[in-house]
Amino acid sequence: MSANKDEDGNFNMTDNPSAVGLMATDSKRKEEPAITGMIYGVEDRPPWANIVLMGIQHFSVSFSGLLAMPLIIVAPLCFHLDRNLVSQLIATSFFMCGVTTLLQTGLGSRLPILQGMSATFIGPIIIMTNLRGPCPESLPANATEGELDEFREFAYGRMQVVQGSLILASFVQVLIGFTGFVGVLLSVIGPITLASTLIMICIPLIPIATESCGTHWGIASLCMLLIVIFSQFLDKYNIPCPGKRKLALFTFFPILLAVAITWLLCLILTITDVFPNDPAKYGYKARTDIYNTEIKNSVWLRVPYPGQFGLPQVTFSGFVGMAVAVIAGIIESIGDYHACALIACVPPPPTHAINRAVGMEGLGCLLAGFWGTGCGYTSYSNNVCTIGITKVASRPVLYFSACIYIIAGVFAKFAMFCAAIPEAIIGATLACTLGMVASCGFANLQYVKVDTSRNLFILGLALVIGLGIPDYLVKNPGCINTGAELLDQVLDVILGSPLMLGGFTACLLDNLVRGTPEEKGTGWREGIGEAVADREIHEVTEHKCYDLPFGMAWIRRTEWTRYIPFVPTFNGFQKPKRCRKAHFEATGVE
Question: What are the start-end ranges of the E strands in 47-177?
């Protein structure tokens, strides 16, 4: 099938699959490659109707995953005891998702990548908040305003430490990006390090997932079963629609469908009083009417603002943990930039685009710290996959989707409604998505020769150290006692983080232990670029999609701009011609 547009820019549906999940089919249609040319490229502007529909689709695909992240961190922050705080955190996270997406797509990488809260920050958050003591078991059933205010001050204190550490660590990412230091970072980080890092991200989240599922294992199991059926068995089947079209319902919305069906079942079982009314009995937390009063009393509109949880506080140990999470997020995002470029049929992002994208992500994390989302923001991989399925990489579509998230963040009643989802359902979606994060880590091993004693040793030792030492510290609290409280806290954060220990061990050994280029995966980034070139869609050269949206004529005619790492005319740091000539005359080597 060819992708043709008429003179008005509208897409001809008779010969092509639709970009909004409705696919034209006939009985003789042949199987196509997983990735073909785009219906709408990065620089294309579809008709407004298509922009709206495709923007809603991006929102729908990412919604459940982006909702899960704030619901994960409410427990270490102690926000889970007050649904108003949960609602406020959800609304803030949605609002900042839209803001950071506009920054990244408009000024950063310029690729159509949605930004979302990153799981790399969850481990440091858990460790930092554990240093401040445990949460209360519960709040009194009829808590007074004074008791609620006292609890919120306690919870705000935990958030303020996370905010301050995130803000300080974000400056590190801004410097890494806008100074061009990303290239140095990439020179020591290979596929083995990336695989170990992504696998270790999942470790702190497993107990959270099982604890949430434990509120009602029956509901959680049903939700997981539906996700498996929809995503793995029914994804090839489409729903017939009028006009010889078919709706790829199970391909695009497996998690959303599973959540909706399970939530509806919980509603039925609540109305019929199958679930107990006694909060002390098992299964009570699966009821859908627990937070009816909070939903009814919540305000309709609330605009998130900086400092809404109080003045951020900084601890050195928290900064160290967040800085490691920031670096892990950079590694993860760079892989997403290349994957998005590959799927969108544009050349791999040049150096200036990566520098600018990393710096803009740092700015997004900085804003997230001031607004109080708890987590930093990185590229969201699920929507990169959506581009490959829909064959729509248009930038305006992501702009519209970002605006939907901003509106959802201001619409406080919607956020409170999301906060009322039964914990068992949230635990089930988290359990399923955790496996995908770990699998992305294993997928990076395709760029190295895995079946060698060198790589098996490095990967195995990184996993053992990354899992073993934090587990020992959990079972032996207080075992680190150097006599200096600040040093104890720093060591608690470093040695208690699977992400830090596993990633550092893999990086250190991968750079020190001798190995062939195939074993080390040397040139793995170039391999992605070759995959684009092999498709013969275009020549792998500089592409205008990475240009800034303004001032390009002035930038190109201004000589000194080529020395700025995030400007499109930047080609790397090079010695002046006179220095290179003198070096050649002295050594005979260019």
Answer: 115-117
Q: Kindly report the pTM of this predicted structure.
A: 0.74
Average pLDDT, the chain: 80
Closest CA to 397 of 42, 11, 6: 42
SS (H, E, C) 169-231: HHHHHHHHHHCCCHHHHHHHCCHHHHHHHHHHHHHHHHHHHHHHHCCCHHHHHHHHHHHHHHH
Question: CA 546, 530, 396: angle at the middle one, nearest 5?
Answer: 30
> Are the CB atoms for 191 and 448 separated by under 8 Å?
yes
Write down the pLDDT at residue 20: 38
Which of 46-50, 217-221, 235-239, 287-291 is most confident? 217-221
Distance CA 556, CA 488 (A): 52
382-394 pLDDT per residue, tens: 677 667 656 778 8
DSSP string across 313-343 = ---HHHHHHHHHHHHHHHHHHHHHHHHHHHH
3 state SS of 377: strand
CB contact at 8 A, 568 and 548? yes
Give the position of tokens 């809603």.
Answer: 56
* Partners of 115 in the β-ladder: 379
For 454-502, write each residue's pLDDT tens digit. Answer: 999 999 999 999 889 988 988 888 888 888 877 887 888 888 888 788 8
**For residue 228, what are its two tokens?**
């498996």
For residues 427 and 265, give the distance between their C-alpha atoms in angstroms, rounded to a whole number: 16
Question: Which residue, among 462, 394, 406, has the nearest Cα to 112 in the 3D structure?
Answer: 394
Supply the DSSP string of 405-469, one letter for each residue. Answer: HHHHHHBHHHHHHHHTS-HHHHHHHHHHHHHHHHHHHHHGGGGS--SSHHHHHHHHHHHHHHHHH
